[in-house]
Every structure is written in structure tokens, then in C-alpha cells.
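Model it.
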Amino acid sequence: MGRVVAVANQKGGVAKTTSVHTLGVALAEQGHRVLLVDLDPQACLTYSTGADPDSLERSLHDVLVHRTDAADVTVEVGGCTLLPATIDLAGAEVHLLSRTGREYALKRAITELTDAHDITLIDCPPSLGILTICGLTAADEVVIPLQCETLSHRGVGQLLDTIDDVRAYTNENLTVRGVIATMYDGRTNLAKQVIESIRETYDLEVFDPPVPKSVRVAEAPGQNRSVLDHASRSKAASAYRALAERIATP
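Modeled.
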């Protein structure tokens, strides 16, 4: 049985999708069978991998709403298997609200796929709605990407409250694996203070190394490439490879 890792932060702009994509490619480079699940109706992960959300005939929406077999929807991208999203997934959220056992919809739908892969990374939407709850319910672990800025505290606290609720009602074994510090500028005291404060306030592990702030990282999604392909020798690429090794270790 493969491990399922939800990558979540309801605050947008924290490099969550970039982290999912790059970690997935790094894990595949290291020989792991990787499944990427795009749970965000904005379909940024799908777009970043080079799959065009506007031209896909089927997506995760069909899996959740029409009970299409998830294996029939996947596409192969960059050494990983992708369960793609389209804007239709926003409608799936409304549909799920009226369904009994809605929190378990994703878990039930992808069990066969997760069993066939070593690691599944779920790119949760930047919200704490039903789709994120589904992602957390389906996961064994949560990884939190965190931009090193002052307002990060508020988002982490809210997410941890939601994780506590999920543990209480739908997934008692869910664990928080740790935090990935993104867009890190080691020249500033603020970045270092935010990391230390997250450790002290929430007793969370902040993985080393942090991912440095880089225009090359920002460019990669627009090129439909991972950071590893777009800037393979960059410090950010090295950081993601090291983080992938850490995440791959149970």
C-alpha cells in the first residue's frame, strides 16, 4: 500500500502547486512510482505538468460526480501519473455537499490507484472547503508549504484546526509530517524568525533545506515544466531533491 501525502495551505501564493509538481518529479527521478492528484478547480497543477485543462475530455470531476473509474482519467506526465483537474471540479464541490459520506469520496475513488503507487501527492485547493476535507480524509500525512512571511502564522493555525477536526471525524490517523519553507530569503531576519516561530508556536518540524526564493522557480509553471527540468542545477532544484528524499522516508 502506497503512502498518501496531502499538500495543503489555504493561503494562496505559497508555492504549493509548484512544490507538489517538483517533489513528484524528484520522487520519480529517485525511482518511486508517483501519483499526482490535482484537487484544485483552478487546475494549476494540471496546467503546470503540460496537460491542457481546457482540452481534457475527463477529469477528477467525472470521478467524483459521475463515478468514472479514476484509472480511466489519468495521464502520464514527467515520469508521474496525474489525476487531472478542470474548472468543472468547482461544480463537484457543490454536488458533494448533498452526498452522504462526502468526506470519503476521494479516498474511495483513488484507493486502487494509491495502492499501485509508492507515493501519492494531493494538491489541495487554497481553501478549507469540502474538497480540502476530502483530500485530508484520503491522506496519511500532511505537508504544509509555508511562505516565510508574517501572515503565515494565521494560515497555519487555521489549517491545524481543520486537521484536528478531520482527525476527530473522518481520519483519526492523519499526521502532520512537517513544513516546507518556500520563497526563503536567507539574507533577511524575517525569514529566519518566521521559521523559528512556527517551530515554537505549533511544535512543527520545518524541513531542511528551505526552498530559496528564485525567479527560476516562478518561471517553471509557465513553461509547463518542473523546477528540476527548467533549472536543474539551481539551488531550488537541489532543495526539492533533498526534500523529496526526506518525504520518501516513512
